[in-house]
Design goal:
With 243 residues, this protein is of the alpha/beta class. It has helices at residues 9-26, 41-54, 80-87, 109-122, 159-165, 184-188, 203-211; strands at 2-6, 31-34, 62-65, 67-69, 99-100, 128-131, 153-156, 178-181, 192-197, 230-235. Strands 1-10-9-6-2-3-5 form a 7-stranded parallel β-sheet, with helices on one face. The two termini are 15 Å apart. The structure holds 2-amino-2-deoxy-6-O-phosphono-alpha-D-glucopyranose. 2-amino-2-deoxy-6-O-phosphono-alpha-D-glucopyranose (GLP) is lined by residues 35-39, 66-67, 132-134, 140-141, 161.
């Protein structure tokens, strides 16, 4: 894994946006895997700036989001559909037909999961997958556990993740307990992966991830060690656990 340490969140966001921009310039019809959460917000802001001020053209790009809460409506401000439109898609020129986010409203969720993986395959596969990381090492909503599912699937969220997400919801009962997430099969087929981590809260998990080359379902992100083209970009405070 190649590690990039940036002085602060702004610099981290800029380097992430530069990597996305370079991919789009290299391949205008690139397929991007996109994350949500607080970490990529600065990257999306910088990409919007590049689009508006520097003419970055995303009209050929296709996107696949990593995950969505199960049972949430898309006009709920906490849904990842809402987040992606609000923070990115509404401000750039990605064609709506090329935007893919797991459809959690579908009656047959297993079929939708299967179709999501088929759509990724038919697109030619993900060129650049951008990831955040949970405090427990989850990627998308691939949570630590005994086993890991490789395909897109519906999953129960761990207590730790539900608690981490609770800050965004009015009360605990409203926090989704399930989500649909791309599995590690989909993630690992990406030709290039960029994992972002910001803030002191991520120092421990980044220390664990980069402090060992072993893989374990207890730290889902550790599976990225198998991939040959991963960049881990972190802010200085998230790098505090590194020797
Ligand atoms: C959620 C998302 C993940 C994301 C994680 C970290 O669990 N499903 O994809 O990486 O949050 O979020 P944050 O960047 O806010 O720390």
């Amino acid at each position: 894994m190649k590690v990039i340490i940036k002085k602060d969140y702004l610099e981290l966001s800029k380097v992430a946006a530069n990597i996305v921009r370079d991919e789009i310039i290299r391949k205008p019809n690139a397929v991007l895997g996109l994350p949500t959460g607080s970490t990529p917000l600065g990257m999306y802001r910088e990409l919007i700036r590049m689009h508006k001020e520097e003419g970055l053209d995303l009209s050929g790009a296709t996107t696949f989001n990593l995950d969505e809460y199960y049972g949430i409506s898309y006009d709920n401000e906490q849904s990842y559909h809402y987040y992606m439109h609000q923070n990115f898609f509404d401000h750039v020129n990605i064609k709506p037909v090329n935007i893919n986010i797991p459809d959690v409203i579908d009656d047959d969720i297993d079929r939708e999961c299967e179709e999501y993986d088929n759509r990724i395959r038919k697109s030619g596969g993900i060129d650049l997958m951008i990831l955040g990381i949970g405090h427990n090492g989850h990627i998308g909503f691939n949570e630590p556990g005994e086993e890991m599912e490789t395909r897109t699937h519906i999953t129960d969220l761990t207590k730790e993740t539900i608690e981490a997400n609770a800050r965004f919801f009015e009360n605990y009962d409203m926090v989704p307990k399930k989500a649909v997430t791309m599995g590690f099969g989909g993630i690992m087929t990406a030709r290039k992966i960029l994992l972002l981590a910001n803030g002191e809260g991520k120092a421990e998990i980044i220390g664990k991830l980069l402090g060992s080359s072993k893989i374990s379902t207890r730290i889902p992100a550790s599976f990225l060690h198998i991939h040959s083209n991963v960049i881990v970009a972190v802010s200085e405070d998230a790098a505090k656990g590194l020797r």
